[in-house]
């Protein structure tokens, strides 16, 4: 790994209204300093965030997404966070072109649910049931959810990545939010984890918008 790579931003994506919660994301704005895929993977593992983005063309929004253990063609948090940081109208990912826009305090992307990693979407009868859930067995990627207010589209959710990358529970899961929105066919206001907020809205021809607040940590 290139030890000289130290210039990266740390964002928190899908924050609550008070600026708390959300998931950390690393972004290397100049991906050319570490062009080798194995080196990028090692650097992402060293940082230890759920996602690290390498920007290969900041003007066109070309990005490469890595977790500590693998490269992803698409992921919600990396795309929302990088769209906010670069302020570009689109991102180019291996999965396809992701639309992006800013709307007040929220950054939105537009993607296809099938680009997301598979999750078991498991509905429960009440938010309290979701809150009381234990961590599922290793290997099962579960997005547990319940209606807080069905008429208003308010959802309580928790994300369990099956201990992937050593994580028992995910504070915010953009990919699963896309999948749930695609299944329900309606806009959602999701509170996940300890207090992260994710907004979604289905769009024509199989697209889904995903929005949230982003803060720069350093």
Automatic annotation (TrEMBL):
Organism taxonomic ancestry: Bacteria, Bacillati, Actinomycetota, Actinomycetes, Kitasatosporales
Protein name, entry field: Phenazine biosynthesis protein PhzC/PhzF
